[in-house]
Amino acid sequence: MHDHDPDAPTQRRRRGIYLLPNLFTTGTLFAGFYAIIAATQDYFTVASIAIFVAMLTDMLDGRVARWTRAETDFGIQFDSLADLVAFGMASSLVAFMFSLDALAQTSDVAGKLGWLAAFFYIASAALRLARFNIARGAPTEKNHFVGLPSPAAAGVLVGFVWVMTRMGVSGDQVVVPVFGLTVATGALMVSNVRYRSFKKLSTRRRVPFHYVLAMVGVFVLIVLFPPFVLFAAFFGFALSGPVEAILRRRHIRRN
Known about the structure:
- The chain is mostly helical.
- Helix content is 73%, strand content 2%.
- The chain has helices at 8-11, 19-40, 44-67, 73-98, 108-135, 140-143, 150-166, 175-189, 209-224, 226-254; strands at 144-146, 194-196.
- Helix 5 (108-135) packs parallel to helix 8.
């Protein structure tokens, strides 16, 4: 007969998952799925809004996990799968259903280019997320992202679709811009272009009062003109990486 070890229960491997962060991740997955359903029924405004909601829940799940110290390997993998659905599959499908499928009316080759561009975007999002998971915690990922993050790529692509629907422009009128944005954002996701991660921004640090006024102004603009402001913000962020890379090379050459 063996003596009972009082420390045995604490030595057992804890099982289960943290509810709150994974609840937000499930919200990201649901929003992406809902966007797919809406896009197949030609509700592109609803689909675009759903993907932006997915961005909000995707941002919250990581913050909540860090605040509650509930980061787990399961949560990381679940988050990547949800991101692939929302910012990869759903976003490319919205672009394809809105505009790229109109290329099939031109010729068979053009039609194939349309769905190949959408597939290229999905594959790039998957590769980007896989590379991010491998490099998670590396010094290069603390201050910068290598490649355009998939939520930002979706913000550019879906934001443009939302702007066009708000302006009453049909998808077959903007096939070329949508095709270009689909390929360009996909290429940026798998590129080595570095983007600022803003992870060092502290919510506890004091800031000047005019910063608060600026934030209020941004919120007012988003409420008044949501598709235009969001698209401009994500498009500007997507351009910031290549622009900084060009300026950095010029600085190195001068020195």
